[in-house]
Amino acid sequence: MKSISKKSLFYAFILINVALVVYLYFKGYEFDPLMIKGFLTGRHFLVAYFVYILILIVRGLTLLPGTPFLLVGIYLFSFFQVFFAIQIAIISYCLIIYHFAHYLDFKVPEKILKFEQKIKTKEIPIIFSLCFIPGVSINVLIYFLSIIDIKLKNILIGIIAGTSITSIIYISIVTGAYEASKALV
């Protein structure tokens, strides 16, 4: 049996999505975000919230950017619900990455290993500080810290403390922008 290439699957996925959008356009379908929000946050809140957390965990195990997921969460849920969903997801994928990092057996570049002793001198403050650098992926950071044998407790303390503050800042900024745009309309 002939194997299907990733490229073919990708193009088929794009084609199906474009065909679906064209079909819905010609059928006169109107997209109503308020209806979807009402459906997901009404009777189906717990399921929607659980699925949102699962999506955040899967996103954390990949290199997908988190901003679109943050925007969807802010639209659907309250400030604290989004904050706790993000923290639950970070703790979950931190534990997953920590426990499977050595099985992946990726080679860490020598330049990065030079920082191993610097990090081990003040683990928690350095991990905490790294959470504030734009462009530093938390999942890659967790992987690197796991490879150089930083204790899980120290990783969790540094990551949770750092991402709590950055999450509050991001959620506040986006929520403020969203509320300001609603006030203009």
Describe this structure in words.
The chain is mostly helical and 185 residues long. The protein is built from ten helices and no strands. It has one domain. Helix 4 packs across helix 10 and helix 5 packs antiparallel against helix 10. The radius of gyration is 20 Å and the shape is globular.
Write the SSE topology.
Layout: H1 6-26, H2 33-41, H3 45-60, H4 67-76, H5 79-104, H6 110-113, H7 116-121, H8 123-130, H9 138-147, H10 152-184
Helix pairs in contact: 3-5, 4-10, 5-9, 5-10, 8-10
Short descriptors:
10 helices, single chain, mainly alpha, 185 residues
Q: Note the total helix count.
A: 10
Could you spell the SSE succession in H and E letters? HHHHHHHHHH
Biggest sheet statistics: none
Terminal residue distance? 57 Å
Number of domains: 1
The gyration radius over C-alpha positions equals 20 Å
Low-confidence stretches: none
What's the helical proportion of residues? over 70%
Structural class: mainly alpha
Shape: globular
Mean pLDDT, to the nearest integer, reads 84
How many E strands? 0
**Which range does the strand content fall in?**
under 5%
